[in-house]
Amino acid sequence: MEFQTISIKKFEEYRKKPDTWVIDLRSAEEFEEMHIEGARNIPYAQLEMYKKYLPKDKTYILYCDRGASSLKAARELSREGYHTVTVVGGLQAILQNV
Hints:
- By secondary structure, the protein is α/β, with parallel strands linked by helices.
- The protein is built from five helices and five strands, in the order βαβαβαβαβα.
- It has a five-stranded parallel β-sheet.
- Strand 2, helix 2 (28-33) and strand 3 (40-41) form a beta-alpha-beta unit.
């Protein structure tokens, strides 16, 4: 299964779809400091442990600080059958376009 990279405009469209989860891959401390409303925190370093709790019938919008970790996570999860999209530029790009 392929993953997609999406723009900020598409991010707003995707997050409104049913059965879509927004996943923040940054540390718990970074998440507590600031995050996108409605996002769930799964730090990238713990993703392997949490995968068993992620249903494969959802779409996962992944973001990190600048997009590198979310790109790696999207690639990994998509290889295992998850439908993933990642936000180009990560949280920094989202914040610049708010």
